[in-house]
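[PROTEIN RECORD]
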Amino acid sequence: MNNGRTQNAKLLPAIAEKRFLSTSRVPYKDIVIYLFIMAGIVYIVLRGASEQGYHWQWYRIPQFLYTHKDGSFTLGPLLEGLKITLHITWISMILTYVIGLATALLRLSDSIIGRVVARLYLEVARNTPLIVQLFFIYFVVAPVLGIDRLFAAILALSLFEGAYASEIYRSGIVSLPKGQWEASHSLGLTTFDTYRKIILPQAIRRVLPPLTSQTISLIKDSSLVSVIAVYEMTMQANAIVAETFLTFEVYFTIAGIYLVITVFLSQLVALLERKFKVHH
């Protein structure tokens, strides 16, 4: 018996080293494939621009990002638009989480009216285009409520994304064992206390990564608010293109900015998934 344990103890370092090497190995094949794809995309873009006789003028782009005058930096129209985009995203994200949670709780409630209202909202929000909802809220709801175009955009984004966040919350809640509900009721806890003390803390832990992924969709969808003349980054880009005809340079620049933001959030999602990994 002791000899077997000794042999196992000797094998453990080798097994651990093998696992470390297998997990820490650099994915050269994936890197080569990625670089090959990116090179192909760059070639197609450059070839297409060349066929159209397009002359690149990247040197004109920095002035639309920032200007340096009298020893100080001033944000250009694109970065000013980015500030508006982030402002819209931040407020919409909070409202999305609140609306999503409230809708999920209504769907799981014993109230028939609550379930019907939640279901109706979900069907309308998920089965109509966001741009239609933007126009409806801006031209119909906003004048009635007396809100400006910025808040109309925030409201439309929040309602649209909240419908999808609701399903994320609901899936997290129903994934918990029913025995926890039974145990909480046997302890005399009310439904409110059960949600607050037992169910929601566990559910939110499970749904935090997909909720962060929903935020990525929210950032990308925020570019549509330019249709109601909200001067976020896409609207600023459209104005610059109309004035300078720097079509490729401007749109590639804002695409790069969106890419940096979404890649950062994607890495955050991966980190959260590792940190809050749930073992079933």
User: Anything to note?
Assistant: The chain is about 80% helix and 5% strand. The longest strand covers residues 66-69. Confidence is low (pLDDT under 50) at residues 4-13, 19-24.
